[in-house]
Amino acid sequence: MNKVYKVVWNASIGAWVATSELAKSKTKTKSKVLNLSAAVLVGAVTFSSNALAGTVLGNGSSTPNKCNNSGSVIVGGGNTQSCANSDFAIAVGNDVQSTGRGSIAIGSGSRAESRQPNLDGKGAIAIGNDAIAYGDNSVAIGGQASTTEDFTVSFGHKKGDPKYYQGKEQGAWEDDRFLRVTNIAEGVKDNDAVNVSQLKSAVAEAKTHYVSINDNGTKGSNYENDGAKGRNSIAVGVNTTSNGIEAVAVGSNAKGVGTGAIAVGSASETVGSGDVSIGRNASTKGATGSASRYSNQSIAIGDQTKAIGDQSIAIGADVIARGNSSVAIGGDDVDKIARDTELSQKYTEITGGKLQAGKYPTTEANHGSTAVGVQAVGTGAFASAFGMTSKATGDASSAFGVMSNAAGKGASAFGAVAQATGDGASAIRSQILRLSSTTRSITPKLNLTPKLTTLRLSWKTKV
């Protein structure tokens, strides 16, 4: 095999080339070929003598450069701006910086270095015009690709009018349009990359079905699943919080504050330990809103219902169990009945009064009292009121029946519209037996002597 070479002029490309000794020059003379051969030989000797110190190549020249270290290479038209300023670094292109040990920067304006002044960005690779790889073993591939952390990879950055900010956050571009990496096969092993199709399938499988929360497009608190503050607590909903230990809050703006408290419903709130509030605006918080006034182990169930006292129970709409150990079951709305002609007439026949919509207060019970029925009121201590619009306002009083009233202390009213207004008074009224007034006198020895003032018996016979 012929191993002898010579340099001849190639007219088609306009340059001197190395070729076999059998090849002929197109137009140049033999003397010129010999002179060029000598020049190339001198250049080769010069290149060899500086191999360990680094090499700069460009425009057919080979010269050492102060910006290169042992084993480094700079290629780029003799441009003094390019720099391979570390061992075994490579810089190719105009205005290129490859300052880390073993780093590579290829492309005009590319950088393979560290973003920290005292670090070198060893092993960094930047390929592409204005590609930037800051950080050890980081890789940036593509025009204007940028990566700023160690061991990271970035692919491309598409810009119409690129503006790169060298400020507080290096790598911050004017907008967020990036190139895509396409035709990626589905990953199989744990360390494989995945494609969008696999991600969509994973997201679909990870979703918990039959659970939906709609924030109407506006992010509120708990969006980041951080509403459960208490230990082992649960918070589900927009702006929902559970601060108590093992508390549960479910619903928009629901709050579970007390230990083991449960709040379910929009804006429901449980403040005391072991409280339960179920319903819109249901609450166990004091009526004054004071942090020092709250109940424990109370239950409020229903829209706008309040269980304020300790171990109080309020069930219904707009019901208030105000006192400790109180029970209020009912509501405040008789509008539907009042508008019903037949029912309204029956109420008038029984009570002698007229049922008026919105006239009566809500069902309410005081300390140790019980009120059961729509608009039933047991405001006296230890009082009992059973029946729609019944009232037991005296302490230890009892009212049983629609529109019954026990106003005196220890008074008792039994039957529809029965009235016991004096202390210790009793009133019984019914269709069969009507006891309009019974009084009791109390002696200093507390002997009770009943005195019957009026007794009337009546009955009706239907044919």
UniProtKB/TrEMBL annotation:
<keyword id="KW-1133">Transmembrane helix</keyword>
<feature type="domain" description="Trimeric autotransporter adhesin YadA-like head">
    <location>
        <begin position="392"/>
        <end position="416"/>
    </location>
</feature>
<dbReference type="InterPro" id="IPR008635">
    <property type="entry name" value="Coiled_stalk_dom"/>
</dbReference>
<feature type="domain" description="Trimeric autotransporter adhesin YadA-like stalk">
    <location>
        <begin position="180"/>
        <end position="219"/>
    </location>
</feature>
<dbReference type="InterPro" id="IPR024973">
    <property type="entry name" value="ESPR"/>
</dbReference>
<dbReference type="InterPro" id="IPR011049">
    <property type="entry name" value="Serralysin-like_metalloprot_C"/>
</dbReference>
<feature type="domain" description="ESPR">
    <location>
        <begin position="1"/>
        <end position="45"/>
    </location>
</feature>
<keyword id="KW-0812">Transmembrane</keyword>
<feature type="region of interest" description="Disordered">
    <location>
        <begin position="270"/>
        <end position="291"/>
    </location>
</feature>
<feature type="domain" description="Trimeric autotransporter adhesin YadA-like head">
    <location>
        <begin position="121"/>
        <end position="145"/>
    </location>
</feature>
<keyword id="KW-0472">Membrane</keyword>
<protein>
    <submittedName>
        <fullName>Uncharacterized protein</fullName>
    </submittedName>
</protein>
<feature type="domain" description="Trimeric autotransporter adhesin YadA-like head">
    <location>
        <begin position="228"/>
        <end position="254"/>
    </location>
</feature>
<feature type="compositionally biased region" description="Polar residues">
    <location>
        <begin position="280"/>
        <end position="291"/>
    </location>
</feature>
<dbReference type="Pfam" id="PF05662">
    <property type="entry name" value="YadA_stalk"/>
</dbReference>
<feature type="transmembrane region" description="Helical">
    <location>
        <begin position="33"/>
        <end position="57"/>
    </location>
</feature>
<feature type="domain" description="Trimeric autotransporter adhesin YadA-like head">
    <location>
        <begin position="297"/>
        <end position="317"/>
    </location>
</feature>
<dbReference type="Pfam" id="PF05658">
    <property type="entry name" value="YadA_head"/>
</dbReference>
<dbReference type="GO" id="GO:0019867">
    <property type="term" value="C:outer membrane"/>
</dbReference>
<feature type="domain" description="Trimeric autotransporter adhesin YadA-like head">
    <location>
        <begin position="99"/>
        <end position="113"/>
    </location>
</feature>
<dbReference type="Pfam" id="PF13018">
    <property type="entry name" value="ESPR"/>
</dbReference>
<dbReference type="InterPro" id="IPR008640">
    <property type="entry name" value="Adhesin_Head_dom"/>
</dbReference>
